[in-house]
Amino acid sequence: MSQPAATKTRISGTAPPSVPVGKRPKYNRRELLTAALLLLPSMAIFAVFNFYPLFQSIYLSLHANDILGLPTRFVGMDQYIEFFSNPELRRITVVTAVFVVMTALPSVVIGIFLALTLQARIRGVNVFRTLMSTPFGFSAAATAVVFAVFFNPAVGVFNGILRMMGMDSVGWLTNPTFALPSLAMVCVWGNIGYTLLVASAGLQNIPDELYEAARLDGAGRWTVIRQVVLPLLTPTIFFLIVIMTINSLQTFGEIHILTGGGPNGATTTLVYGIYQTAFAYGGSNYGLASVQAVVLLVVVTAATWLQFRVLQRKVFYG
Amino acid sequence: MRQRLVAAAAIMAALTLTTACNTGDGGDEGDGGSAGDFDGTISFWYAMAGRNGEAIIELVDRYNEQNDMDVQVEAIYQGNYNDTLTKLRASAQSGDLPSMVQVNELSTRFMFDSGLATPVQELADRAGYSFDDLNQKLVDYYTVDGVVQSMPFNVSAPTLYYNKDAFAEAGLDPEDPPQTLEAIRDAAGQLAGGSTEHGFVASIDGYLIEQYLAMADAPYCDAGNGRDGLATQVEWDNDVTEYIVDWWAGMVEDDLAVNVGRNNNNASAAFQSGNAAMMTFTSANLRDIIDGSDFEVGLAPFPKPREGDAGGPLLGGGSLWALAGQSDEAKDAVFDFMAFMMSPESQAMWSTQTGYVPVNERATELPEYTEVLANYPDLELAGEQLAGTPEGANTTGCLMGVMPQARDRMNDAVEAALLGVKEPRQALQDAAASLTSAIEQYNDSVGTN
Q1: What are the residue boundaries of the ABC transmembrane type-1 domain, all occurrences included (chain A) (predicted)?
Q2: What's the rounded Cα separation, in Å, for the pair B268 and B266?
Q3: Inter-axis angle of helices B403-418 and B206-215, nearest 10
Q4: How far is CA A212 from the centre of its chain?
Q5: Distance CA B326, CA A230 (A)
Q6: pLDDT tens digits for A252-279?
């Protein structure tokens, strides 16, 4: 949703954290007051745009609502039970997990690969770097609309190419087997602009002396990448994996425009399920949608926490 | 240190000021919108894109230039019918409603139950307006409990579009289009693989099933199609519905029809590009489809499911609703604009630019209508089809608050059948069952209102 803003604030996270200090220094009251006052504006914004909706979601998830979506009466955990006993839940969970893997991993791998190739010291490499990071500048909606034309079963470019090669048309978005990979492809295309930029920035931080030293020691190109570049890039890789996981868990625009969660639910992820329950076809079941939103929050938090626990141990901050 | 403290205090002061402003704005919500102070501007949310959207804007421009009440209409495109309704619900929560909104036929019951609108009858009575020039049958559709609820501005009928060139090449008579599902299947068998890759195309759209059931004179939901009381379930678990879905799935399985998913535009693109030779589609885009095809387009009445079915097509499209909570002055302005949209001149222009039925019957006498009709004789077909629909609950469509969700569930059922995931009967049973709780919830919340 507010993805650009969110990632921008998180970019600072690539910087290595300061060395932890054993004892907490004492602040005097005056300093604390200043700190509180300076924090107040951002806390106020957080309160209005993050904390208030969060608590409102929890409130709504415990209440039934009328046809306009206004809460009517307290129903306790009923809607949570309804959600967890829904036979569709299993499929939604699997779809979400597969989608995250199919989107986040290629986004990171391709982004780093492109960043490495664009390290080459050739004329005009900056032109390519700029061109290749342009997808970052496109909104999800614009990207999806263009790809929708490419995927069109009758007049689309992709089927046109297949037909020219004498092959059968493919139901890119209408065949349940192809729909999720097609969707993931669009998202990966949109993501690599960003992963490429961040990976390039990470590569710039590796001092030239290290390359030189490695080369003097007789290391080949592949050894340099494996033994020097990738280990030094781990903070960036870690950051990208976390961001891309969260990003793909929250993907909405592409799904909404390209498949609407179909065919036959093959692309209905957790986030899209929230939309369908709350808004699609005059559903207005804000209670059940809020349950899903709370579950999504828990899932994203858990995934992020897990990644910090498992991956951060393997990160080398240099 | 001192400086920092001052800066922080300044930021805080600025923040308090802005929040104070915000609460000031929020305070207005209590007194029911902007009743009392009408500033001469009407906000009108509409749900038409492409050529039909342009025609709406043209009409609004004409009104803004012509009207002698010094009223300006601000037309705002809000996406398709579903998007518009979603936004309407959201703005109902914040109390910031438009003056007027275009809503599809499906959501009539919801609009009525929600109490969001002022019945058009009430505005018409204030203005001394008579509905006599309008097609009575169409006005009746939007009449609930004897009161006209909304203005039947855009009325369409489902139609069979076919490629006359492809028909001729396949050895079929271009002047004798198929009239039943079986006949479509036979024709598709001859057409597929000829000059067009596929014989038939239709997007997965529950709208078409609603229409087939009306053609078969079969109910869609219980309680007399929702007209004798609140419907409690849909009636999809029967032979005729199964027959229709089974026919469709068979067409796709045998490669006679192409499955283009749920997007209507994909169906019209397949037809117009000569990828499929026949298509079931609303009449609303007739001009667009004829003008955008480089072959001769034929139009035929919507097919009957089986030989001998004696029903008729339902009206489709949308109507204009006036939102509640407006001052008398604003109501009069809204109605003045509505009356303009229903005038013979406006309806003649609207109908000939789109393919919608001219709801004002005097529109068909105007030269701007008859001249276009000479070039596009099929413009009359939609009106003729609706006029031929026999009276009865089954041919007036199911009146149910959750119709939009029902259509979506029907889409699920058809899609599952087309993809071969489920047998048609099973798919219909599952979809009907999954809808029951939504109907209960709706009836429950309407009851407690």
Answers
A1: 93-307
A2: 6
A3: 100
A4: 36
A5: 66
A6: 999 999 998 889 889 999 999 998 888 8
Q: How many residues does chain A have?
A: 318
Question: Which chain B residues contact residue A30 at CB under 8 A?
Answer: 1, 5
Confidence band of A112 (pLDDT split at 50, 70, 90): very high
Closest to B243 measured CA to CA, from B180, B161, B316: B180
B223-235 mean pLDDT: 90
User: Cβ of A67 and B401 within 8 Å?
Assistant: yes
Chain B: closest CA distance from residue A280 (Å): 7
Q: Which of A41, A173, A280 sits opposite B11 (nearest CB)?
A: A41
Asked if A37's CB is within 8 angstroms of B8's CB, the reply is yes
Distances (CA, A) of B301 to A27, A107, B155, B289: 83, 51, 16, 16
**Residue A106 identity:** P
Which one of B445, B448, B449 makes the best mutation probe of the A interface by having the most chain A beta carbons within 10 Å?
B445
Q: Which candidate, B428, B389, B412, B399, places its Cα nearest to that of B235?
A: B428
Nearest to B52 by CA among B152, B155, B158: B155
Check whether B214 has a pLDDT greater than 80: yes
pLDDT at B19: 40
- Say what the pTM is: 0.83
* CB-based contact B266 A262, cutoff 8 Å: no
pLDDT in tens, A7-39: 333 334 444 444 455 556 677 888 899 999 999
Domains of chain B and any CATH numbers: 41-155+316-375 (3.40.190.10), 158-312+389-448 (3.40.190.10)
Q: Which residue of A has its CA nearest to B444?
A: A66
With both helix axes pointing from N to C terminus, report the angle between B403-418 and B424-448 in degrees, rounded to the nearest 10.
170
Are B217 and B395 spatial neighbours (Cβ–Cβ below 8 Å)? yes
Nearest Cβ partner for B266 among A64, A70, A154: A154
DSSP 3-state of B266: helix
Q: Each residue of A220-231: pLDDT tens digit?
A: 888 888 888 898
Domains annotated on chain A, with CATH: 91-137+188-312 (1.10.3720.10)
Contacts with A175 from chain B: Cβ below 8 Å: 419
ipTM of the complex: 0.76
CA–chain centroid gap for B92, Å, is 21
The pLDDT of B111-126, averaged and rounded, is: 93
CA distance A263 to chain B (A): 7
